[in-house]
Design a protein that fits this description.
This protein has ten helices and 16 strands. By secondary structure, it is an alpha/beta fold. It has two domains: 288 residues, Zn peptidases (Aminopeptidase, 3-Layer(aba) Sandwich), CATH 3.40.630; 113 residues, Alpha-Beta Plaits. The strands form four sheets. An eight-stranded mixed beta sheet has the order 1-2-4-3-5-16-6-15. A hairpin with a 6-residue loop joins strand 1 and strand 2. Helix 2 packs antiparallel against helix 4, helix 2 crosses helix 10 and helix 8 crosses helix 10. The chain starts with a helix and ends in a 21-residue tail after the last helix. The relative contact order is 0.19. The N terminus and C terminus are likely disordered.
Length: 424
């Protein structure tokens, strides 16, 4: 199997996918290739923040209803799900999940379909995810047969912790789902490839807010007050260093501050200051015990300064832990894109609330290559993020072959009788 690094330099062509599947799918993609692009661009132009995805929800629902389907809105009015085809003999179906929300940032891509909403942009590829799952669902609805149906899940609020996946689960949407899959844009992989990994593919991610306070004072008389800025300095340098000595280095645990605020005047010691950061770990067991460790280390770092401390610790989500059989299904399905399309990938330090679904049912997330194959890599969560639109067709073809029977190998266990999710 090729490495991720090898895949980035391999030439690729959308023609490689043509004819790789059943004729009906080739015909559907030929007829709807421009639609896929148009759907993605509409969503990209009109981004919406977490739990505000009313327009995107309505847009997806309209396309599904136009195909004679019956989408169901989630209780809060953003996000939806839609069943296609019959359930299996056990009343189960496969889940295909996309996320709808955008990020609170300005876009600087220079695209003629760039965001029209100031301060909001699809810089994580959720517009691509949504268009791919919508396309896969409509293609499956047009299939001449579908032995086991699918449930399309268009989820709100992936970008906020602990994630909109919990809203979906609370609404009972996973009831009747035996296995679930998702794709996530990866600008480090060339278009036409899919990164696959069994086991953890993302990391747990929490947010910590530390609020410091003191009486304040004049910088000419620091002995009469508490040095709040000095305390912040100890906090931002000591806590990450101390954490590295409290957890197993093999757990891939990292703490990074992203925001520090205190005062404005050069000659005034401020009364208040804050530091905000993320705590990430690649292991579930470490994530389960990390909060009390962080609280202890924060207090230990600032105690000698005399400032008052308040900690707001926000639990995020566990690692996305791809179930082995589901990862094998994903790797096999990627064969429809080409013999070298499935590439090995590594666990990232990023967080993804798809992890919550895998606490309930087996499944896997794959990384959809969106790098054009030349030019700079424009990373996710950056204002110049760019996704090659050829990835849309690759993503649709992959998800259809995950859900459609022909690619289910008789040498593997029946996916309709999955292993139970891993016990925690």
């Amino acid at each position: 199997m090729s490495s991720v690094a090898d895949s980035a330099s391999r030439p690729t062509d959308t023609a490689r996918a043509a004819g790789a599947g059943e004729r009906w799918l080739d015909d559907w993609l030929t007829a709807h290739r421009e639609d896929l692009i148009a759907w993605r661009r509409h969503i990209h132009r009109n981004p919406e923040l977490s739990r505000q995805e009313f327009g995107t929800t309505a847009f997806v629902a309209e396309k599904l209803r136009a195909a004679g389907l019956d989408p169901q809105l989630l209780p809060a009015g953003t996000g939806l799900y839609c069943d296609i085809g019959p359930a299996d003999a056990d009343g189960k179906r496969m889940g295909l999940r996309a996320d709808l929300d955008a990020l609170p940032m300005n876009e600087e891509s220079g695209l003629d379909f760039a965001s029209t909403v100031p301060g909001v942009a699809h810089t994580c590829g959720h517009d691509v995810h949504t268009a791919v799952v919508l396309g896969a669902g409509l293609a499956l609805a047009a299939a001449p047969r579908l032995e086991t149906g699918v449930r399309l899940i268009f989820q709100p609020a992936e970008e906020v912790m602990p994630g909109g996946a919990l809203d979906v689960i609370a609404a009972g949407v996973l009831s009747g789902v035996s296995r679930i899959f998702a794709l996530h844009c990866d600008p480090h992989l060339q278009v036409g490839t899919v990164g696959v990994k069994a086991g953890p593919i993302t990391s747990a991610a929490d947010i910590i807010d530390v609020h410091l306070s003191g009486p304040g004072g004049h910088t000419s008389r620091p002995q009469l007050t508490t040095d709040l800025v000095g305390a912040l300095g100890r906090l931002i340098t000591d806590v990450p260093a101390l954490l590295a000595r409290r957890v197993d280095p093999r757990s891939r645990t990292v703490m990074v501050w992203g925001s520090v605020e205190a005062g404005r005047a050069a000659n005034a010691i401020p009364k208040r200051g804050t530091a905000r950061g993320t705590v990430r770990t690649g292991e579930y067991d470490t994530w389960a015990e990390i909060e009390p460790i962080m609280r202890e280390l924060v207090h230990a770092a600032v105690a000698p300064t005399g400032v008052q401390v308040r900690i707001d610790y926000h639990r995020g989500m566990p690692p996305v832990d791809n179930e082995e059989y589901s990862a094998t299904m994903l790797r096999r399905a990627a064969g429809v894109l080409g013999p070298d399309a499935a590439v090995d990938t590594l666990q990232s330090s990023g967080g993804e609330d798809f992890a919550w679904y895998l606490e309930k049912v087996p499944g896997a997330m794959g990384r959809l290559g969106v790098w054009p194959g030349s030019g700079p890599v424009c990373d996710i969560h950056q204002p110049d993020f760019y996704a090659d639109e050829r990835a849309l067709e690759y993503g649709v073809r992959l998800l259809v072959h995950l859900a459609a029977p022909p690619l289910r190998s008789p040498n593997l266990a029946d996916p309709r009788n999955p292993a139970p999710p891993r016990e925690r």
